[in-house]
Amino acid sequence: xxxxxxxxxxxxxxxxxSEASKFEVTEGTIGDLKTMRITNTDTMEYVxxxxxxxxxxxxxxxxxxxxxxxxxxxxxHNGDSEAIKENTWSKGMLLIPWANRINE
Length: 104
Prior knowledge:
By secondary structure, this protein is of the alpha+beta class. It is built from two helices and five strands; from the N terminus they run αβββββα. The protein starts with 5 loop residues before the first helix and ends in an 18-residue tail after the last helix.
């Protein structure tokens, strides 16, 4: 069973501005770690989740409303699987059940 973290669900709900939005789920790897990427094929925004560690969000790429370019809005491990395993600075940790950690 794959755990889909809250950030993935937030991305799916926030970028789907209309029912016409389409999403694509692809499997991948970072080193020896399995990942899943959920991409909005209309906007090309995506989230990449490391599923080997309970669903840690590694990257969240969103479209800038001002410049209309796609950029990563999270600090990531830059594709380093050993850094993901060590996770010294708690990057990508689950925010559940404390959703109030996200500033609006």
